[in-house]
């Protein structure tokens, strides 16, 4: 795989990682009662999730637009 | 300057040139937008009391009204645009390539308007938007709606629109015009070489493949906003999510047919968007309409078979009461086109004029159905001991909605003068 491809796949993996972290570890836990169930464990977790989505789709932009390192 | 004007004339599809008809259209749209801004300013000045919305129960009203109906409708319109565009890339549907870009533009514009419709519904838009990014809970369907629909879906559509437009930008950058610098920047190094074409096709294929499941999830999560509310009779139900997806397709394909029929004439591209493209869209619309009709029959049968008191109140209001005229007009506007489309498909006699009329009809039906999804449950679905409520949109709400549609018209009209709305034909190299 070219370096351009490796960096693009890396962006997708990093984006998915951010989404998984924000959804399962950073945001409010999956429980029904109590204050702990309402508050996010890490504030701005939803914003981190959105960043992950943007990063994953930006990989297509990078793959297409960047001149990339010489292959 | 005069030389540059002459040079601009070589840009295709009227790009970079103003016509009287276009100026009149943009002026009318600007007037509509100004009316909308005045309406929104009045809403801000007087508070939400300027709208027809009131608290549930104690004030006998509805807290979600015309704006939220429009959110659901506009996000629905966005569905078909990107779906059709993605299907064209995935299955190489040659006859539809002429509508691909306008489908992508329709998606982006409809999503922007949908997001704007949420903002106008909020008394404190800034606070609400900040708090969503800060505190939203993954358990809430709103999390999926704003993270997947507004950010993921919109961003993915913008990336898709940009990447698929680069080859045309590269072609336009070779034509001397006042917009040449913009096209060079837009093309971002694309030179239409064989290697770049392969990479472009590969990227748009995978992007299309990623977008299709994303938009199903995104539209379903919007359906879940209603369908998961166990304490709200009329909304709670398993059919909400799939019905949202199918009706989204109906309104979007209908919109695309109307847009394609108008724009092919305006930009003189009748040969690129032929009858076979309309026939394909017509068959797709027919299929979606029959599936949706089946969902409506199942939904109505379920609610009248052995309903709870609240469910019975809602179904009576919709079928024979206060909302009956909206329901039956909507059903007629959806079912009659399905029958006409079936007849066209059987006889293989497609008429563009008829398809445009059917496209408008299904959109009227879709708006009616969206309204009925949002409102009756709030006014007639009380589980608490409150009486039946009522809701009528105020003039302020109508003005704001007019402003939203005018903004959409301005965005599409503006795009047309900046870039070809119909993909240019590939050059052989």
Brief characterization of the structure:
With 71 residues, chain A is mainly α. Chain A is built from three helices and no strands.
Descriptive overview:
- The complex is a heterodimer of chains A (71) and B (429).
- Helix content of chain A is 69%, strand content 0%.
- Chain A has 71 residues and is an all-alpha fold.
- The radius of gyration of chain A is 16 Å and the shape is elongated.
- Chain A has three helices and no strands.
- In chain A, helix 1 runs antiparallel to helix 3.
- Chain A has one domain.
- Chain B is an all-alpha fold.
- Chain B folds into two domains: 57 residues; 342 residues, Formate dehydrogenase/DMSO reductase domain (Formate dehydrogenase/DMSO reductase fold, Up-down Bundle).
- Chain B has 15 helices and no strands.
- The longest helix of chain B is centred in the middle third of the chain and has 34 residues.
- The chains are: A mainly alpha (71), B mainly alpha (429).
- At the A-B interface, helix 3 of A face helix 5, helix 6 and helix 8 of B.
């Amino acid at each position: 795989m070219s370096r351009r491809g490796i960096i693009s796949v890396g962006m997708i993996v990093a984006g998915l990682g951010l989404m998984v972290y924000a959804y399962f570890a950073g945001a409010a836990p999956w429980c029904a009662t109590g204050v702990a169930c309402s508050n996010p464990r890490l504030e701005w977790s939803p914003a981190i999730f959105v960043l992950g989505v943007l990063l994953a789709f930006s990989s297509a932009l990078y793959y297409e637009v960047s001149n990339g390192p010489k292959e | 300057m005069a030389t540059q004007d002459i040079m601009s004339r070589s840009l295709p599809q009227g790009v970079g040139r103003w016509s009287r008809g276009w100026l009149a259209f943009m002026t009318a749209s600007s007037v509509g937008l100004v009316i909308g801004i005045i309406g929104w300013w009045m809403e801000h000045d007087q508070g939400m009391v300027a709208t027809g919305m009131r608290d549930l129960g104690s004030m006998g009203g509805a807290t979600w009204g015309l704006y939220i109906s429009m959110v659901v409708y506009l996000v629905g319109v966005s569905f078909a645009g990107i779906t059709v565009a993605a299907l064209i890339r995935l299955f190489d549907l040659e006859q539809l390539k002429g509508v691909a870009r306008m489908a992508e533009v329709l998606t982006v514009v409809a999503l922007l308007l949908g997001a704007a419709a949420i903002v106008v519904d909020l008394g404190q838009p800034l606070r609400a938007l900040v708090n969503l990014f800060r505190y939203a809970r993954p358990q809430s369907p709103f999390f999926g709606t704003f993270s997947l629909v507004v950010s993921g879906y919109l961003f993915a559509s913008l990336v898709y629109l940009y990447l698929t437009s680069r080859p045309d930008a590269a072609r336009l950058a070779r034509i001397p015009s006042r917009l040449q610098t913009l096209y060079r920047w837009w093309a971002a190094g694309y030179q239409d070489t064989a290697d770049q074409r392969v990479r472009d096709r590969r990227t748009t294929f995978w992007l299309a493949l990623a977008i299709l499941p994303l938009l199903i999830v995104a539209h379903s999560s919007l359906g879940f906003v209603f369908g998961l509310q166990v304490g709200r009779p009329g909304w709670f139900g398993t059919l909400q999510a799939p019905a949202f997806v199918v009706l989204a397709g109906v309104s979007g394909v209908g919109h695309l047919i109307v847009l394609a029929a108008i724009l092919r004439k305006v930009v003189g591209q009748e040969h690129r968007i032929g009858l076979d493209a309309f026939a394909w869209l017509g068959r797709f619309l027919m299929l979606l309409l029959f599936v949706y009709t089946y969902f409506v029959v199942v939904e109505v049968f379920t609610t009248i078979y052995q309903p709870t008191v609240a469910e019975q109140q809602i179904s009576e209001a919709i079928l024979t009461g206060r909302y009956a005229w909206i329901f039956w007009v909507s059903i007629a506007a959806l079912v009659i086109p399905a029958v006409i489309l079936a007849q066209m498909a059987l006889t293989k006699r497609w008429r563009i004029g008829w398809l445009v009329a059917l496209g408008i009809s299904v959109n009227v039906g879709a708006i009616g159905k969206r309204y009925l999804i949002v409102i009756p449950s709030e006014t007639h679905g009380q589980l608490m001991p409150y009486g039946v409520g009522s809701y009528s949109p105020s003039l302020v709400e109508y003005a704001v909605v007019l402003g939203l549609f005018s903004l959409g018209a301005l965005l599409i009209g503006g795009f047309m003068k900046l870039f070809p709305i119909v993909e240019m034909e590939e050059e052989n190299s």
